[in-house]
C-alpha cells in the first residue's frame, strides 16, 4: 500500500493539476474568448503543413514535459488554430461564441458521463427529453421521440434506417435478404450525407433518385411524383423522401406542404433535413419558410449551426410514438440495461441509438436557452435575416459584385468580378476566367488572416462565394469590412 501511494503522489499531483487547469483557462480566456472574437485580431495564422508540424512538435515520447512547456504548447495550439468565433469567419454554417453555451460545454466535458442510462446520467436523461420536447413543439408536434446524434449526417442516416425498419421490420434480423430494391428521393441540392447513408446502410447509392430542383434550388413536387412512378415502373419500392429546409449552398427551402401531399398519397416516409434551416422555427417572422414541416415523419435540426451552441448539437426528431427508435436499434445489453433496476428502466434511453457511449449534447443548448430565453434566440435569428438584407443591398450597389440569386435565407451567394473581367461577360472564356477568381482571393485572405469565406462551383455556375451570416455578434461594420477587403484583395486581378 505504501509503495502504491508513493507512486501515485509522484504522478498524480492534485494541486499541480488544479494550477494547470487555472492557467489553461486563463489562456483560453485570453487567446480564444477575448482575442478569438476581436475583429482587430486575425481569423487564422496560416502555416504550410511541414512548418506547422515543426512548430507543434507533434511526436509523442516516453518522457513527460514540464508544466511551463505544456502551457506553451496549449498557447501554440490556440495560436495556429482557426478562430471560428471571430466576426470575420464566414466560412461554415457554424460560427460565433455564446458564453452560456460554452459554459455548458465546459461542464459537460468535466462531468465526462455517457448519456445511456439514468443510473450514470440522471440530470441529462431528463434534460435531453425536455430539450427534445421543446424542439418537437416548435416543429408542431405535441408528442413524439428523438435523440441527439453526432452531427446532422448521422441524423439523416438514422431517419433512413428507421424508415426502412418501419416498412420491413424483418431486415433487422435478416439484413438485405429481406428487402426488395428500394428507392430514395431527394434533389441534387441536398446534403451529401444521403449518398453516404445509402451506401453505409447497404441500400447503395444507386437507390437514390434525383428529383429536379428549380433555378432557386427548391424541389419540384411534380417531378417527385414523376420519379416515384418511374421507380415503381422499374420494379423498385419507393420508401423515403428527403426534403431540405435550408440547403447547404443556396439556402433553399423545399416546398414541404406540397411534398408532404405526395408522400401521403404514396405512403412514403417524409424526412425533413432542417439541419441548417430548423432554427428558423424560432422566428415568428420567418418560420413560414418551413410551412408543412409538422407533416414530416422525422426532422434533423442542428442548433450548433444558426443558434451557435457549439459543436456538436444535432437533434433527430420523430413524430413516432410507438418506440420505433428502440425497436429498430435496441440490442438489450444485459450489463447496461438490466430490467430489474430499482428505478423506472424506461429512463435508460441508451438502447434507442446505434452507439453505446454517447456524449451529452443537450446541456449547452439548455443552459443558453435558460439564460437568454426563447425571445432572445428569436431576435438572433431575425438579426441574421436583417444583416442578409443589408449585405444584399450593399452588393447590388457595388461595382464588381454580382449576386448569384436573391437569398431566401442567410446564405449570400455572389461573384466578385475583378476590374479586368468587367464588361467581358460575352467573351468565350469569361466563365473559365471568373472561376479562377475565388480560389485566388481565398488564398490571399487566408494567408493574410483577415477573414474566411467559402466558395464552390454549383451546377453549371463557375466558382462563387457563399457567405454565411450566422454569428450573433456580427454587426454591419463587419460586412462593410468584408466587401472592402475583398475588393482590396482582388483589385489587381
UniProtKB/TrEMBL annotation:
GO CC list: cytoplasm
N6-(pyridoxal phosphate)lysine carried by residues: 305
Family of the protein in this entry: Belongs to the group II decarboxylase family.
Cofactor: pyridoxal 5'-phosphate
CDD domains per record: DOPA_deC_like
Keywords from the UniProt entry: Decarboxylase, Lyase, Pyridoxal phosphate
Subunit structure: Homodimer.
One GO term (biological process): carboxylic acid metabolic process
Superkingdom classification of source: Eukaryota
UniProt-recorded name of the protein: Cysteine sulfinic acid decarboxylase
GO molecular function terms noted in the UniProt entry: pyridoxal phosphate binding; sulfinoalanine decarboxylase activity
Amino acid at each position: 500500500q505504501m509503495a502504491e501511494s508513493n507512486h501515485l503522489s509522484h504522478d498524480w499531483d492534485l494541486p499541480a493539476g488544479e494550477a494547470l487547469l487555472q492557467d489553461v483557462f486563463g489562456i483560453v480566456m485570453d487567446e480564444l474568448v477575448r482575442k478569438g472574437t476581436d475583429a482587430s485580431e486575425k481569423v487564422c495564422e496560416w502555416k504550410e503543413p511541414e512548418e506547422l508540424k515543426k512548430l507543434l512538435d507533434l511526436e509523442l515520447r516516453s518522457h513527460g514535459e514540464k508544466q511551463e512547456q505544456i502551457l506553451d504548447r496549449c498557447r501554440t495550439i490556440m495560436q495556429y488554430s482557426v478562430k471560428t468565433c471571430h466576426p470575420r469567419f464566414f466560412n461554415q454554417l457554424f460560427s460565433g461564441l455564446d458564453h452560456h453555451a460554452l459554459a455548458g460545454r465546459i461542464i459537460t466535458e468535466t462531468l465526462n458521463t455517457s448519456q445511456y442510462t439514468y443510473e450514470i446520467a440522471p440530470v441529462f436523461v431528463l434534460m435531453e427529453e425536455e430539450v427534445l420536447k421543446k424542439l418537437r413543439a416548435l416543429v408542431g408536434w405535441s408528442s413524439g421521440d428523438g435523440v441527439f446524434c453526432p452531427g446532422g449526417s448521422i441524423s439523416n442516416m438514422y431517419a433512413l434506417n428507421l424508415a426502412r425498419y418501419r416498412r420491413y421490420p424483418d431486415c433487422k434480423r435478416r439484413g438485405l435478404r429481406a428487402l426488395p430494391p428500394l428507392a430514395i428521393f431527394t434533389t441534387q441540392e441536398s446534403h451529401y450525407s444521403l449518398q453516404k447513408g445509402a451506401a453505409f446502410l447497404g441500400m447503395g447509392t444507386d437507390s437514390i433518385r434525383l428529383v429536379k430542383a428549380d433555378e432557386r434550388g427548391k424541389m419540384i413536387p411534380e417531378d417527385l411524383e414523376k420519379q416515384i412512378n418511374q421507380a415503381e415502373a422499374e420494379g423498385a419500392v419507393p420508401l423515403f423522401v428527403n426534403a431540405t429546409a435550408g440547403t447547404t449552398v443556396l439556402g433553399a427551402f423545399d416546398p414541404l406542404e406540397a411534398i408532404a401531399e405526395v408522400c401521403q398519397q404514396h405512403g412514403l416516409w417524409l424526412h425533413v433535413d432542417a439541419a441548417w434551416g430548423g432554427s428558423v422555427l424560432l422566428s415568428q417572422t420567418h418560420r413560414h419558410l418551413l410551412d408543412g414541416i409538422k407533416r414530416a415523419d422525422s426532422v434533423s435540426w442542428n442548433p450548433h449551426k444558426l443558434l451557435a451552441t457549439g459543436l456538436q448539437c444535432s437533434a433527430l426528431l420523430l413524430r413516432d410514438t410507438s418506440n420505433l427508435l428502440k425497436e429498430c436499434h435496441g440490442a438489450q445489453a444485459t450489463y447496461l440495461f438490466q430490467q430489474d433496476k430499482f428505478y423506472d428502466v424506461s429512463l435508460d434511453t441508451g438502447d434507442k441509438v446505434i452507439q453505446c457511449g454517447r456524449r451529452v449534447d443537450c446541456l449547452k443548448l439548455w443552459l443558453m436557452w435558460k439564460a437568454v430565453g426563447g425571445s432572445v434566440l428569436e431576435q438572433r435569428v431575425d438579426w441574421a435575416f436583417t444583416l442578409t438584407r443589408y449585405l444584399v443591398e450593399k452588393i447590388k450597389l457595388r461595382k464588381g459584385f454580382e449576386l448569384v440569386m436573391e437569398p431566401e435565407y442567410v446564405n449570400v451567394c455572389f461573384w466578385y468580378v475583378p476590374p479586368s473581367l468587367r464588361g467581358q461577360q460575352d467573351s468565350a472564356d469569361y466563365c473559365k476566367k471568373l472561376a479562377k477568381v475565388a480560389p485566388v482571393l481565398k488564398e490571399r485572405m487566408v494567408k493574410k488572416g483577415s477573414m474566411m469565406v467559402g466558395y464552390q462551383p454549383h451546377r453549371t455556375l463557375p466558382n462563387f462565394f457563399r457567405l454565411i451570416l450566422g454569428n450573433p455578434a456580427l454587426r454591419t461594420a463587419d460586412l462593410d469590412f468584408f466587401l472592402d477587403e475583398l475588393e482590396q484583395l482582388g483589385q489587381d486581378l
